[in-house]
Amino acid sequence: MAKVESRMQLQRGDSAPIFELPGIDGRGHALAECAGKSGVLVIFMCNHCPYVKARMAEIVALHREYGDSVAFVGINASDPAYPGESFQDMKDFAEAYGMEFPYLVDANGDLAKAYGATCTPDPFLFDADQRLVFHGRISDALEPGDTPSEHTMKENIEKLLRGEEIEKWFNPSLGCSIKFKN
To answer: What is the value of pTM for the model shown?
Structure first.
């Protein structure tokens, strides 16, 4: 397991790179589907990563609390041939964690590279105009065994919904490296 930190590529105010990717529900999903929401949370994630698994309860709880206002999208950019990352593994993972938001496949990793995603989880929060307002961690619990004392993403979603500026717009996440296809 190669542990890496998020890196800054997109800047505050940059537009979300557009996508249309297949989902585990058998449909194609596009960024345009998120129009009309107060924001969009794009999370690069995977199935095997202990960092993702440790934060899934928080991610699912955020979706349950804010999913009516903010669109949530999980994207797996790891090579589907990597152990634990197949399409069926994605379906099983989503079911096991109770994910009720789209989980998409970026099989060649091009979208992750356009976002500058490097680790899992690597979340990007965009406003209603799909402009970047925050890139970074779910919480301050960066290691799988840590208990959060600060709920970074929750606080930033609330600021977004109140129309407040997120001062610390980049606060790196930590996780496994994305296992890009060679």
So the answer is: 0.96
Measured distance CA(93)–CA(108) in Å, rounded: 20
Which domains does the chain carry?
Answer: 3-16+42-177 (3.40.30.10)
Interaxial angle between packed helices 87-97 and 50-66, expressed in degrees from 0 to 180 and rounded to the nearest 10: 60
Whether residue 121 has a cis bond before it, omega within 30° of 0: yes
C-alpha torsion angle, residues 47, 139, 99, 20 (rounded to 10): -80
pLDDT tens for 26-40 read 999 999 999 889 999
Residue 8 CB coordination number (10 Å): 12
List, as one string, the DSSP characters of 64-124.
Answer: HHHTTTEEEEEEE-S-TTSTT-SHHHHHHHHHHHT--S-EEE-TT-HHHHHHT--EESEEE
